[in-house]
TrEMBL record:
Presence of the UniProt keyword Cell cycle in the record: no
Source organism of this protein record: Niabella ginsenosidivorans
A molecular function (GO) term: potassium:proton antiporter activity
Pfam families: Na_Ca_ex (PF01699)
Primary residence: membrane
Lineage, uppermost ranks: Bacteria, Pseudomonadati, Bacteroidota, Chitinophagia, Chitinophagales
Stored InterPro entries: Alkaline_pH_Ca-Antiporter (IPR052946), NaCa_Exmemb (IPR004837), NCX_ion-bd_dom_sf (IPR044880)
Topology of the protein relative to the lipid bilayer: Multi-pass membrane protein
Listed name of the protein: Ionic transporter y4hA
Gene Ontology annotations for the cellular component aspect, listed alphabetically: plasma membrane
TM ranges: 34-54, 66-87, 99-119, 131-153, 165-183, 217-235, 255-275, 287-309, 315-337, 344-363
Domain Sodium/calcium exchanger membrane region, first and last residues per copy: 34-185, 220-362
Length: 364
């Protein structure tokens, strides 16, 4: 077919092999099946990154990063709801733990590694201050309303909302996220386009290449969603082996959620790092902060809808240590981006916060 000439063969085969592995390797134990699953999982992640770049090149910024963020979030929500439906004592805290892990990974690891790599290669990189503040003000509001405020309400004991409160917060989250998308893609789209140090449009390497055809773009979009679905399901399949390894080192079970969240976020992480290495830090920040907003701004409303129909309790409030780390992460990211210039120091500080988060998870 015509479109196959413009897409590498491995990017077409990877999602197929991933789904075949998912349906044929389920229930098998042993070293070889685990190695095969890990191999096809990595191949699926790399293929997802490639297809995301194809789509992004066709539609331009910031629409390409929005598509990847929304695709990953839809898969993440599906995984959370499917695990919650299986019940169990841990199901009530699953949405909170998954969202918090994803937010901490994005804010401290993905943003930190992008700033560090970009700063090491180019000394200084530039972002639009208005883009950073727009994303962070929306993200801060949703994070505090969904993960912190539940600890201080009195209508219901425990770190959770009553049903009316949960519905209200879900609506507020959707309003904030929708407003951000309107600002990012329509009203102030220029804020989110790459800029140089003088505020002029930055030079993009991709501009020298012809954009993919509509047919190629559609195929890449379908394969992107297919790859992301396979990545999440394979991560879920590997979770028992991860749990065994975590238990073997005596770490708490919450580390399993962090590992799975890192696997699910791998496509966004790799895409963001590649953009930073091309001196397009604004694209990296669009992807990271947009993913963080989509992760919590869409996940919490979806969980709220599910709990209303299933009558399943959901815990949202995080503990004191997590609250302090969350506030520190937001504050550090804000200080790192608000000047419009970044260097390696900001990346180092963010990565040390991420290391602290991991350390306190293992040794609370």
């Amino acid at each position: 077919m015509k479109f196959s000439l413009s897409l590498p063969t491995w990017t077409l085969l990877s999602p197929v092999l991933a789904w075949i592995a998912y349906f044929t390797m389920g229930g098998r134990t042993g070293t070889l099946p685990v190695v095969i699953l890990c191999f096809v999982l990595i191949a699926g992640v790399l293929a997802a990154v490639h297809h995301a770049e194809v789509v992004a090149h066709r539609v331009g910024e910031p629409f390409g990063t929005i598509i990847l963020a929304l695709a990953v979030t839809v898969i993440e929500v599906s995984l959370i709801v499917s695990l919650m439906s299986s019940g169990g004592e841990k199901a009530a805290a699953l949405a909170r733990d998954t969202v918090f892990a994803a937010i901490m990974i994005i804010l401290t690891f993905i943003i930190g590694i992008c700033i560090l790599i970009g700063g090491a290669k180019f000394r200084e990189q530039f972002v639009t201050k208005h883009a950073a503040t727009s994303a962070l003000v929306a993200l801060t509001a949703i994070l505090v309303l969904t993960l912190v405020v539940p600890n201080y309400t009195t209508s219901q004991p425990g770190p959770q909302y009553t049903q009316p409160q949960l519905v209200f917060i879900a609506v507020v989250s959707l309003i904030i996220y929708s407003s951000f998308i309107m600002i990012q893609s329509v009203r102030h789209r220029d804020y989110f386009l790459p800029k140089d140090e003088n505020g002029n449009p930055g030079e993009e390497e991709d501009l020298h290449a012809l954009p993919p055809t509509v047919k190629t773009t559609i195929v890449s979009l379908i394969l992107l969603i297919t790859c992301l679905g396979a990545v999440v399901l394979l991560a879920k399949m590997l979770s028992p082996f991860i749990e065994t390894g975590v238990a073997a080192i005596g770490a708490p079970n919450s580390l399993v959620g962090i590992i799975i969240a890192m696997v699910v976020l791998l496509p966004e992480c790799i895409a963001a790092i590649q953009a930073a290495r091309k001196n397009r830090l604004q694209t990296s920040m669009n992807l990271a902060l947009g993913s963080a907003l989509a992760s919590i701004g869409l996940t919490i409303p979806a969980v709220a809808i599910y709990t209303l129909f299933s009558r399943t309790p959901v815990l949202l409030g995080i503990d004191t240590t997590s609250t302090v780390l969350l506030i520190l992460s937001i504050f550090t990211v804000m200080l790192s981006l608000v000047t419009g210039k970044t260097n390696v120091l900001y990346g180092v500080v963010l990565l040390t916060i991420f290391a602290t988060y991991l350390f306190l998870t293992i040794f609370p």
